[in-house]
Amino acid sequence: MKIVGGTVITCSPGRNFVTLKLETDEGMYGLGDATLNGRELAVASYLSDHVLPAIVGRDARNIEDIWQFLYKGAYWRRGPVTMTAVAAVDTALWDIKGKALNVPVYQLLGGASRDAVMVYGHASGETIEQAVEAVGRYVSQGYQAVRAQCSVPGLPQTYGIGRGDRYEPAARGAVSETRWSSARYLGSVAPLFERLRREFGPDLHLLHDVHHRLTPIEAARLGRALEPYALFWLEDPTPADNHEGFRLIRQHTTTPLAVGEVFNSIHDCRALIEEQLIDYIRTTVVHAGGLSHMRKIASLAELHGVRTGSHGATDLSPVCLAAALHFDLSVHNFGIQEYMPHSDETERVFSHAYAFAGGAMHPGDAPGLGVDIDERLAASFPYQRAYLPVARLMDGTVHDW
Ligand code: GCO
Ligand code: MG
Predict the structure, then answer these.
(1) Is residue 348 a part of any domain in this protein?
(2) Any domain includes 394
(3) I want to staple 143 with a disulfide (CB 3.0 to 4.6 A). Which of 138, 261, 345, 374 is the partner?
(4) Is the separation of the CB atoms in 34 and 87 below 8 Å?
(5) 222 is in which domain, residue-wise?
(6) Using CA atoms, how far apart are residues 385 and 401, in angstroms rounded to an integer?
């Protein structure tokens, strides 16, 4: 079965997505998500100008060989653009293999290790009381795990505070800038979780995302302050490329740590996993080299008692979510899956077999990934330039967003 060509579909049904459609001589095609938020066209060009011409004519059944060919063969390794493009090809090839063998992808990955995959939703509020109400809405929909974020008093905007229950950080048009104060933030988190535990009791899993903004010692202080509220995890407590920072945080707190949504290879997370400095690894299919590479990360993590917690924000398309759910269902050391429902426009462009019920998701049993794209409808939502915001401290210094 030969790869005969492919199309890179760039569309914006509510937000931008890049999708690779890989075609074979047997008329079968596979889909791969290639969306890199705020840098979409770089991946689209990498795929259509460099990757597709190099893989036409290759045997679509040889997924591992094509992965190595693209990774080692390019000489220039790793990096978000490269690894997103490699992921798109890899995901599309798993989709093709599933369709060719008439089985859902999770069956190719070893079958189901669980009935369904626990997901967490995103609750937020301008005030603690609004955040409590938002968490309550998720609980009433059956969620067993909820991430909670609250505005920081004195800051014009805070990461993670959505309109309604949807949060979309990328904004169309020019780059926006926002202000940040770690001192103001640090005082605002424990009161939120104290209130949430009082309201919802001990059983609900509560999560929180720091979004890389604290120094290691600030993060250690926050982790310690949150210990009485027994969080499921504290995410991205400090910039993820400083592994030594995690050693310091670990010395001070038993709050579980999650990291990895910006990682794109096993090398980014190896030390954190091997030294057991984290509890959950958050790499996901689209940004960490596809299902083939994610399985290697999961196997390394399994050895060291680290569980998976794949990134699943709305900038990861339904193709990525479907692939993530096949992965989650199959790996032994699954922890949790992030889930932010996509907009209605996105849902109309991408049909899918996956479904949510009772706080959990299942990828469905359609052959392959079980997801498709309506290309004509996609074409009616043309790409629109969009950027993630840039954060500055109160004195104007650029800070981690
Ligand atoms: C999360 C993430 C997102 C990212 C976004 C960037 O935990 O879901 O932090 O909110 O900011 O995916 O593109
Ligand atoms: Mg995050």
Answers:
(1) yes
(2) no
(3) 138
(4) yes
(5) 108-366
(6) 19
Span 131-144, mean pLDDT?
Answer: 98
Report the domain count for the chain. Answer: 2
Which residues, including other chains, have CB under 8 Å from residue 50's CB and lie 6 or more apart? Answer: 74, 85
Q: Which atom of ligand 1 is nearest to the CA of 314?
A: 12
| Run of H or E residues at 65 | helix 63-71
Same structural domain, 48 and 71: yes
The pTM of the whole model exceeds 0.90: yes
Same domain for 161 and 144, yes or no, is yes
| pLDDT value of residue 329 | 99
Residues in the ligand 1 pocket, defined by CB under 6 Å? 37, 169, 209, 211, 261, 311, 313, 315, 338, 388
Q: Do 339 and 391 contact (CB within 8 A), yes or no? A: no
Q: Which two tokens stand for residue 59?
A: 């045997």
Measuring from atom 8 of ligand 1, which residue has the nearest CA?
A: 313
Give catalytic residues, as residue numbers: 159, 211
* 337-374 pLDDT per residue, tens: 999 999 999 999 999 999 999 999 999 999 999 999 99
